[in-house]
Protein 1
Amino acid sequence: MHLIRAAITAGIRPSAMILRTQPSAPWDRWDFLLLEAYQIVQDERCDCGNPIWLCHHTSNDIQFRIDEVTCEATAYRERQEESRYGGPNQKRPHGVSLRAIPFSPSGAPLASFRRDYYRAQAKKREALNADAGR
Ligand SMILES: [Zn+2]
């Protein structure tokens, strides 16, 4: 999906992005089908991000679980706002906003954390799927 989105952003044929070919060739049947499929997925997306055909279905065989996620950068920024200004919207000087800038105290390249993150996410998904299979 991200390759089709990248192609749309770049204004090139989706198949050129997927197959890593030059985008100068004319659009073919597959480009139009890929674009149509991408648009169908976008059009069927609920406001919450899930497919509308799951969110709006009334079947008792569809249930939802809550996955709590914590943005450590937002948590840190909010704690700083509370300690500096007494709350998210109080006593803040005009025009001032806080941003959480990531850095590694050990000096590790930030990109090196990407693989660990996705491996942990994959393990989480495997555990959830194993639970669902019971
Ligand atoms: Zn929804």
Protein 2
Amino acid sequence: MVIRYYTAPDVKRLVDKMVADLHFTHINPDCVYCFRSEGSKSRRTVARIHSLEKLWQKALKTAPRYLIEVIGERYDKLSQANQEKVLIHELLHIPKGFSGGFKPHKGYIDEKTINRLHHLYTRQRTSAERSSTAGIQSLTRGLSLRLKHASKSENLKKH
Ligand SMILES: [Zn+2]
């Protein structure tokens, strides 16, 4: 079966909101694209992140760009919360320098980190109604420091 790709404005909206709400200031949302694929043979993958490599950036004289691809058959079946967690996972692969490279799972991306960020994101949504973001900003700052020291023995889910 041929893989088909579609732009995914629903995913893009969610990604932009998460980048803003989680204060992922190293990510330039204008350079993050979101696509949905259908017909992928991959059984376990829910989403993956692609980037424009350094050499392509140079050849095309363009800034780094990232593309989050969700596998429609799997992603669309998840609950809203799990979709959000999948996107947090992919966003965590983007390094602080927004260079076009990737951060590895080991030491950076694990279930505990994702759950913690998701908790912050959910709290942010409710605290936004009270128009108070100061607390969440300091929490996120503390968290990004701790991220670097995330446990290496966590079970890693590969996407
Ligand atoms: Zn991953």
